[in-house]
Amino acid sequence: MMRDALRYFRRLKWTLPILMALFGTIVFINQLGRMPYDVEGLRIEVAARVVPPGAPGISRLAIPPIGRVQARTHLAPLRLTLTLKEVDPAFLQSRFAVSGDFSRFSDIFRSAGRDLIIRFITRLLILGALGGAFGVYLVRGALSRELARGLLSGGLTGLVVVSLLLSATWLTYDPDAFRKPEYQGIIEAAPWMLAILDKSVAKVGEIRASTEAFAANLSTLFNRAESLRPVRGSEQVIRVLHVSDIHNNPAAIGFIEKVIESFRVDLVIDTGDITDYGTGLEAALTGFIRDLGVPYVFVGGNHDSPIVLRTIAQYPNAVMVGGRKVIVRGIAIAGVDDPGSHRDEMAPASDEEVGRARAGAQRLLEGSGARPTIFVTHDYRVAEPFTGRVPVILYGHDHKLKVEVKDGTVVVDAGTTGGAGVRGLQDEKPLPLSLALLHISRRQEDYPGAKLVAVDTITLSSVDGGFVLERRVIEPQPGSESPPSPDSGRAG
Predict the structure, then answer these.
(1) Which alpha helices (H) appear in 264-350, and where do they start and end?
(2) Whether the Cβ atoms of residue 289 and residue 309 lie closer than 8 Å to each other
(3) Which of helix, strand or coil describes residue 292?
């Protein structure tokens, strides 16, 4: 009996340090196996985690708040995760926006990837050795005469374990597993997005070509509209370009630039949804704003986010009007952001949020300062109670271009200047790009302050390149609530 006990304790003396070294290695890898890495304006984090034997080896790409995509790529019980943590939009714009050469990303990430892999493997090997040594230390104790040898053996054990895990991962890794990935979060739409990507890119090219043809005829069409129904007192008119729901569509940028140039626009008002998901990468694509050469008044939409608002606010010509009254080019403007633009989750505002936004707008309009000529917001539900109380309301959100007069207030929906973005391009008959041009008179002898006198609506078809300009002259209509009758100039 005594002899069996001695044999058991001798066996335990050798096996327990090995088990504790293995335990320490796993704990160190799982708790400390994260490494941040900066590359070209992106901060990413790569992490490894040991999973129970028999669990699949997974590679995961996480893009908060959109979601994550993962695939079973290897046999080793190791989960690898790459997370996009931060984006520096200003840096990305400075490096890529001027030339527009985003293909450089592939070369940059290929080089950075090699450096990242070497650093990360080195980190994991060091953690494995430290974890193994720590596990032995817990068993042997600081006063053990064999501590030094135990720490060395524990460190070597951890080093071997991590080396085996990494080798098994490398030898069995199958990148083709991402052909059938698993999606979680908003990114579940990725298969649909990938399926229409080629068609979407082709259609963007078609729209750009249509934009060039549109620009060539725009001045002629505008002069034709002027001859039909000239704007009264045009020498003292401020031209305000209303755009909305660009949704990352690059063709919209050329559309906006051509209208600004052809119509000599004084300022732009954007009623939100300039992006699709409100990510930092999308925010980096808004740099075109600072190159327009005119003030750019902006309120956030439900597809925007705090990082999008912060990025746009940095541009010298941007005027963030959410929750504020401002005077731009002599025009008093008040605005309220969509509640969805102040959170990272992409969702329409709830009825409760709309109620709070209305209350905020009420306080804003009743507060001190100039009485606004224009009230801007993204969702008409927020603006609806204020018809009859402000001269002009601008909004977007529903992708339907229209001009109406309600209780004496001219209500303008710019539709979607980006044709609803990628979602619009998936259809055989995608939505046209649309915007509105407001002509606001500042002739004090005609009106008591600034007054909207005409609205031009412009639509550009991505199907056949046709476009339509329609002018509504807003006549003074005392005691009348009926909308003005339109006169149109058309070309296609």
Answers:
(1) 280-283, 306-313
(2) no
(3) coil
Query: Domains, the chain, ranges and CATH?
Result: 2-180 (no CATH), 204-491 (3.60.21.10)
Please give the structure tokens belonging to residue 476. Answer: 């003074």
Angle at Cα 297 formed by Cα 441 and Cα 405, nearest 5°?
50
Contact 231, 455 (CB under 8 A): no
Query: Alpha-carbon distance 437 to 262, whole Å?
Result: 12
How is residue 133 written in tokens?
């040594």
Residue corresponding to tokens 């080396």: 163
Find out whether 284 and 84 touch, Cβ atoms under 8 Å: no
In this structure, are residues 355 and 343 in contact, taking their beta carbons and an 8 Å threshold? no
Identity at 318, one-letter amino acid code: A
Q: Kindly state the tokens that stand for 270.
A: 């954007």
- Terminus-to-terminus CA distance in the chain, angstroms? 102
169 three-state secondary structure? helix
Rounded to an integer, the average pLDDT of 189-209 is: 46
Choose the weakest-confidence range: 18-22, 68-72, 444-448. Answer: 444-448
Q: Whole-model pTM above 0.85?
A: no
User: Which amino acid type is present at position 377?
Assistant: T
**What is the per-residue pLDDT across 397-443, written as a single tens digit (0 to 9) for each?**
999 999 999 999 999 999 999 886 655 555 556 778 899 999 998 75
